[in-house]
């Protein structure tokens, strides 16, 4: 074997190693980018829940009596339909994002799990009336899906987080900061 052929073989091995390394690097980068997108979506979700408009609508809907129809909203609470619409459209968007895996299910479950279920229970009659009024069974379908899915994901113990996770400790305190 001549020096030239030995160099050619080494160049082929070197180029194959570079290609394999590039592919591995690209896969790692894609994974990190996907994780960053999920984290950003979760942060935006958290920010939206802190908005004054959503907080006011949430507070109002929580205090409405259960089983209120669309007519009840119109008659008893002048701003009730606006609150219901803001809550329902927000939950609709979250349902789609969770289903498309834009926001991880665990994040949605822990951030708004019980709230989404409570809000659906409050607004279900209003949504049903709206579907009938619009003659559209798809109105707020993802809100309903979200509530059903989050209900099914509830811990079997049904204990709230402050009870269920009393023994939680960080895995590595230094790396979480």
Folded structure, characterized:
Helices cover 75% and strands 0% of the residues. The protein folds into 2 domains: 1-37; 50-161, no CATH class. It has helices at 3-49, 52-63, 70-76, 80-99, 105-134, 141-153, 161-164.
Treating each run of at least 4 consecutive H or I residues as one helix, how many helices? 7
Mean pLDDT across every amino acid position: 86
Instruction: Give the % helix.
Output: over 70%
Please report the total strand number as a whole number: 0
SSE string: HHHHHHH
| Domain module count | 2
Shape: elongated
Largest sheet: none
Spans of at least 5 consecutive residues whose pLDDT stays below 50 are none
The proportion of residues in beta strands is: under 5%
Keywords:
elongated; 2 domains; mainly alpha; 177 residues; 7 helices
What's this model, at a glance?
The longest helix has 47 residues, at 3-49.
Show the helix and strand layout.
Layout: H1 3-49, H2 52-63, H3 70-76, H4 80-99, H5 105-134, H6 141-153, H7 161-164
Helix pairs in contact: 2-4, 4-5, 4-6, 5-6
């Amino acid at each position: 074997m001549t020096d030239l052929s030995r160099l050619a073989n080494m160049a082929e091995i070197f180029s194959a190693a570079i290609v394999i390394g590039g592919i591995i690097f690209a896969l790692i980068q894609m994974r990190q980018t996907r994780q960053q997108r999920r984290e950003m979506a979760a942060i935006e979700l958290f920010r939206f829940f802190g908005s004054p408009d959503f907080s006011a609508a949430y507070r109002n809907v929580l205090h409405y009596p259960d089983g209120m129809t669309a007519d009840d909203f119109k008659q008893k609470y002048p701003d009730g339909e606006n609150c219901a619409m803001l809550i329902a459209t927000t939950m609709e968007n979250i349902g789609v994002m969770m289903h498309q895996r834009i926001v991880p299910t665990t994040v949605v479950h822990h951030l708004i799990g019980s709230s989404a279920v409570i809000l659906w229970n409050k607004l279900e009659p209003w949504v049903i009336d709206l579907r009938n009024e619009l003659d559209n069974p798809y109105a707020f379908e993802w809100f309903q899906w979200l509530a059903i899915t989050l209900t099914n994901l509830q811990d079997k113990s049904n204990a709230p987080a402050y009870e269920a996770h009393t023994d939680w400790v960080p895995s590595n305190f230094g790396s979480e900061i």
